[in-house]
Amino acid sequence: MGQTPPGILPALNINKALNKGYSVNLKNEYRFSENVDNLSFELSDLSLIFGKKMGINHHLSMGLLTRIENSNLTPRSIFQYTYLQKLSRFKIAYRLVSDQTFEEKESTLFRYRFRVMTEIPLSGQELNKKEFYLKLGNEYLNGWEAKVHSLEVRGISSLGYEFTPKNKVEVGIDYRYRATPISRSTVWLNACWYLKF
Amino acid sequence: MRYILFLFVFVYSFSGISQVKYEKERRVKVEEVPSEALNFMQEFLPEKKVKWFYEEGTFGNSYETKFKKNGFKYSIEFDTIGKIQDVEIIIQIDEIEGYIYENIKTRLNQILENYSIQKSQIQYVGNIYDLLSLNDLKKAHIQQLGIAYELVVKGKIDGEVKLIEFNFSQTGDLIHQSELHLQNFDNLEY
Fold first, then answer.
1. Is CATH 2.60.120.10 what the domain over A2-196 is classified as, yes or no?
2. Is A125–B185 a contact, with Cβ atoms under 8 angstroms apart?
3. What pTM value is reported for the model?
C-alpha cells in the first residue's frame, strides 16, 4: 500500500441562517503537503452551499465548489441530504452527498458519499460555551470516473472547543484510506474554524 | 478488510434526549455535592454510585444526578444546599394516561403546525419520605405526590422550526412553555 506524505488542512467554515429555514454555507479549505523540510501549498477549495430545512431533522443542500490547483479551476456540483439527531449525550449527523467534478480534458468524476459524524461533550452531558468536545466521524466515498470505480474510507477524529455556540474551533486527524483502484493512505492534520452569523 | 478498522461503533443505546432545560451544566465531583443531597441518594440508591452535575439555569442553580434504575431513567434535582426539589422519570409519551394525553395532544396541535416530541418526563414533587418511595415504583406513594409533565417538542410555528419546552399539569393543562435554543449542527453537517 502506498502512503502519500502527510499534510495539513486548514479551513474556515462560515454559516448564515436565512429566513424560512434557508441557510448558506461558505467554506474555504487549503491543502498543504509535507515535503522534506517544509510544507508546500497544494490546492484550495472554495465552496458555497445553500441549505433548506425539510422538516424537523432533515436538511437538503446544494451548491458549488471550486478547486484551485496549479492555477486551474475545477468546478464541482454538490447535492447533500443530512439527517440530524440530538441524543442524550451527543449529537449525530448522517450525511449523504452526491457530487460531480468536471475536470478539463478528463471524464466527469461522479462520487457518492456517506458520512456519520458525532459531537461528544467532554464536560457534562450537554456542550456549553467554553467547553471542549470530541468530534468523531467516518465517511465512505464511492467514485466513478470513465467507469473506473474508486473507494475511499475516511476516519475523522478532532478535538473541538466551543467559544460560543456560534464560534467553534476544531483540530484533529483526518485519515484517508483509498482501497481501490490503487490503495494508498494519507494522514491530514485538520484545523477548522466554524462561525455562524 | 483493513478499512473495517475505521468503523466507529455508533450503537450506544443512549435513549432519550438531552437535558436542554438548563443554560449551563457541568460534571462535579461527589465531594462538591451538599451532604443532604448525598444522604438522600444514599437512601434512594444505596447500591450504586451516581454521577453529579451542577446546573446554572434561568430559574436558579441546582445539583442534579441522573441514573438508571430498574430500566427507568431518573433525574433528581436538589437546590444549592442539598434540599430535594423533584424527582423526574423519563417516560414514553403514550405512557401518559389516555385523557391527559389527549389534552396534551390537543394543545400541541393548537400551538404547532407539525411536531415531534423529543423528550417526555413525569415530574414528582412532595416531601422527602414520599419522594424516597419512588425508588420502587411499584410501592411508590404516587397519591401523595404532586405530578406534572415536561415535554421537549420540536415543531413548526409560523413556518419556522423551534424547540419548545412545555410543562403540563396532572390533568394535561398547559402551565408554561418556553423556547429553547436549537442545537447548532453546522460543524457536523459541513
1. no
2. no
3. 0.79
